[in-house]
Each structure stands twice: as structure tokens, then as C-alpha cells.
Specification:
mainly alpha; 10 helices; 0% strand
Length: 250
Amino acid sequence: MVQFVAFFGPLIGLVLGFDSINRERAHGTLIKLISQPIYRDAVINGKFLAGVATISIMLLSTVLVISGLGMAFVGLVPGVEEVWRLFIYLIISIFYISFWLGVSILFSILFRSIATSALASAALWIFLSFFISLGADVVANTVAPVDRQKKTKPEIVLKNARIKEMVSLSSPMVLYSEATAIIIDPMRKTTRSLVLMSPMEKLLASRFQNPLPLGQSIIVVFPHMTALIAITLLCFAISYMVFMVQEIRT
């Protein structure tokens, strides 16, 4: 479910907002709407909040259906901590898809053509979701090359992994996938793909495989959650400012 929402969730946000402003401008209804005794910011706020409400209802329904099927097949009732984990996962998912909603609304404001805004939104989604991971490999192998045929120093391997991780975190899909994976799965204790451990540390880690408490899971992914919320609010703020200063009658 996490991977499904990470891949198809942005498409929902893009579909909900790619023609929210330029379609009304093309049909001439935006001028009539602004001429009414309402504030201009109520238009952009209503567009965004309506999309967020739709996304919230869709995600809440999906989580409830999946949870109900899980309880029916497994036969176990989730505890308080599991319910909180689902709730936090739901909040992160709403902000993640709302970011793409804000992106599509921004392109709808910037471009007068509906097709152009749709193509620009899809191109940005493809770039941030797929090409960032490819670029992370290229950058990491350029700065800290790792020869798989020869024995490479552990420091170089660790530097390569850290550079790849830092570049990959510029993708909202990576931020969302890592954050939700830690929240949903309490057995995962880190977002790093490579951790150097001594033999004694490996022995202790293998003997003490306890699930991570909810508070510790939140601490692990707190930077990811903060980044997702920040880019969502920043994208909407840019859309808000551009719409407020844009000339509508032209």
C-alpha cells in the first residue's frame, strides 16, 4: 500500500489541480467569479482546500478498507499504537499528495494552456520520482567511485552510500517512502541503506530484534516529515503569491 500510494498518489494530486485556474480563465468564468463580492484569495484557497478535502476522504476510505480487510484475514484487532501509526501514515500521505496538488495548481496559474500545465506537471513528477534516483547513482559514483571487482575501503563505500542518500532525498517520493516505511513497520530502525557495524554489534543486533516504539520511529523520520510538510506549504505559498499578483483580465 505504501508503494502504491507513493507511485499513484501524485497522479491524483496532478489530476485534481492541473486545470483548476487556466480552465476557468479560458472559459471566461474566472473574471465573473472575481467580479463578485468575494476576496481574490478565497478563490485559490478554495481550490486548494477542496483538493485537500478530496484527497483526505480518498485516503481515509482506502486506509479503512485495507485495515478492515487486514483484520478480517488476520483476525487480530490493532492496538492503540498501531492505530496511531495508521493515523500518522494518513497525515503524511495527505501532505505528500497535497504537494503535487500545489504543484499542479501552480502550473495551472503560470500556463494559460491546459495541455501545457498538464505536461509540465507530468514532466516534473517523472523527473523528481525517477530521474533523481538515477542521478544519485551517477553523482555518488563520480565523487566516491566504488570498484565492485576490487576491494574498496569501507570509508569510500560509506561515503558513496551517504552521497547517494543525500541526493535521493531531494525526491518527494523518496522522502515519503522512507518516512511511511518506518512508521508502518516498527521492525525498521533506520532509513539508511548501508550501516557499518563491527562483529560484536552485528551479534547484539541479531539477538535483540525488538520492535521500535512509536516515539522512536517518529524521531527517526522527523526530518522527512518536516521536509514534506515544508515543501507542501512552500509550494502553496508560491501559488498563492503568483495568483494574487497576476492580472486576470488579460
